[in-house]
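Table S2 (text version). Query chain:
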Amino acid sequence: MSGHTQNIWAERAKYIAVDLLTTAAAFVVFNICRYHILHHFHLLPAETPWHYLGSEKLLLEQILVPIALLAVYALSGFYNRPFFKSRLSVANNTLCVAAADTFLIYLLILLNDMGVKRIDYLVIVTLFLLLSVFLFTGRYAVVSAFNEEIRRGRRRLRVLMVGNSRQSRRTAEQLLKGEPSIPYDVIGYIRVPGEKSASDAENVWDFDKVDEVCRQYDPDQIVIALTRRNDEAVMRLLDELLHLNKPLKIAPDTLSYVTSNIHQNDIMAMPFVDLTSPRISDFQRNVKRTGDVAVSIAALLLLLPLFAGLAVAVKYASKGPVLYRQQRLGIRRKPFTIYKFRSMVADAEATGPCLSSDTDPRITRVGHFMRKYRLDELPQFWNVLKGDMSLVGPRPERDFYARQIIAKAPYYRLIFQVRPGITSWGMVKFGYASDVDQMVERSRFDLLYINNMSISTDIKILLYTIKTVVNGEGK
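Corresponding structure-token output:
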């Protein structure tokens, strides 16, 4: 684990601990208020506050509720990026999660209380205010402590500049002279082939040393700042940097094609294009992954009888293994093994990679049936559970074909920002491709998906996929 990753988890741990303690404190105070409200309206039997607050039911709630609400905080995306939070963003998130907490507690716990509708609003408002105030106070303390470390110079964001031209140096100077509340350190410059270097001073490395530099200096982010180039040249550069698993930022005037299609943010009031974060909020990203895990577990358990039947059918149809394994490219172009029910004869690609069509003689009779209803894709729920894939995402391709697609459509490299999916916009709108040109055409739908990622978009794609499967249109 890198030093930066350790720092992220340490900062997350602070927020988690503070959230747990403040939520528990807020719930204690709420239970005191809850007793007095219920007692005032004669909705409790005559008993002392201690008997009520010390009851087994409330003690169990006091332990379980704060722990359970941590899941709400995590799902909201608050812990995704623990560094450099603004007080406004903290307040916004706190109010949202406090409202969600209040709704869940009222629905699951408070409705069991003896009560009448006229006091429900008082209980709800009291709970919401207590959660909001306590939670924000704790988070504000963490943010203030972090900002104090920044003020004292103990926290700085380390940036590696890709490019060593005059433009790169000017961009670095702007970073260093920017807003002092977010100090940056430029750890060095990477020479880019074909670009005239402004200086060969210390901390300047050739491009083939970028992996070694990242391991040694562990930058927090990489900023691509070059003399203006065409899109294809910049996309090739991006392809060489994605595997580093670092946030990649680029000046908008460096790249024209993707500037309007990728999430933009500011670095100290400087507008940069974020090449590694698609347009989806942390909350929706977490919901998407949670849904992936829940659905894949349910599918793997509930479809076990179907899996067994298909395994027997595949084995009966032709000799060879039941499952077909193949190397595909995932997020940040990381290879992974995809699993399918074998729909072709064994050793179908003995002479090399070859795309299939509806009339491909290599497809078995059972294989035709599985492809028609997309049943051969079902083992990929295991890939989803492992985190290699998502339910919805761009179609994962082999490196052999990805290189050919990139040669014709350089923007295809942007596909690797997200996890590939079992189904995709390209699959429901275009279907299977029988040649590289069709794969390029289908990839446009996948790029459109990345630019419009949302839970609602995923649901639409899943509904279209279900329709395709039920109608047997998956050819």
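Notes on Table S2: Residues 77 and 285 are 8 Å apart (CA to CA). Confidence is low (pLDDT under 50) at residues 257-261.
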